[in-house]
Structure formats: C-alpha cells, structure tokens
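User: I'll paste a sequence; please echo it back and then give the predicted structure.

Assistant: Echoing your sequence first, then the prediction.
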Amino acid sequence: MERALIIDTKNTSVDWDLLLTRQEIGIPKPKMVFINVSGGGVRSSLWTVHTLQYIDSITNGNLLKQTQLITGSSGGMVGAAYLRELYLLKIKNKLNNIYDAKFKNNITHCRYAVYKWNCIFPDGCRYYYR
C-alpha cells in the first residue's frame, strides 16, 4: 500500500510540475464546457444539432472537444447524442465533416421518425396522438 502511495505521489507531482510550467509560459487552461439542451421532439433535435454544429464550427472544433457534460431532455438529448456520436466517428477517422447538412436531414426526414419517437418516448407520444 505504501509503495502504491509513493508511486502515486510521484506521478501527481509530475502533473503539478507540468501545470505550473504551462502557467509560467502563459499557456491558458482549456475551458470546461457544460451543455444543457431543451426537449421538444424532432424540432428540438434539429435545433440542437444545427446550433451545436454551428458553434463548434466557429470555435474551430473546440466546443465538442472541451465539452465535459451534456444534459437535457427529450428531443434535445437525441440531437446532442447524435452529434456527439458523429464527433466520436470523426475522432476515430471514420468521418471527415460533422458539419454537413445531410446530418440535419437524417434527423428530420426519416420515414420512421414517428415510430422511433413512439419507442423512445412512449408516454409523450401516447398523449400527443390522442
């Protein structure tokens, strides 16, 4: 146990040294980003994907790179999860451009959209279609 503590202390001190060195030469710490999206079905999914794509593009890809938490409800979370999956594919070099308009069309023009929403949110769809 003591050996593990000594090793951990050495590794921690290296990280502190690195942090102090970054601050001394003027490299700022990256911003930590939290995103909260609203619900609202397919319309909210589209709005979330469009907005996050736009903000990430004008920040040169830093929005999604620095995002630590995405929270919300309903359609907004579906859109955020979709864009996050696109970002993961980009990181794995399986996708080049996550800002393509076809991804927005994928959310809104799916012929099974109503069926999917009914499976994901059965209570909400039950009251909506009465």
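The chain has a mean pLDDT of 78. The first helix runs from residue 2 to 24.
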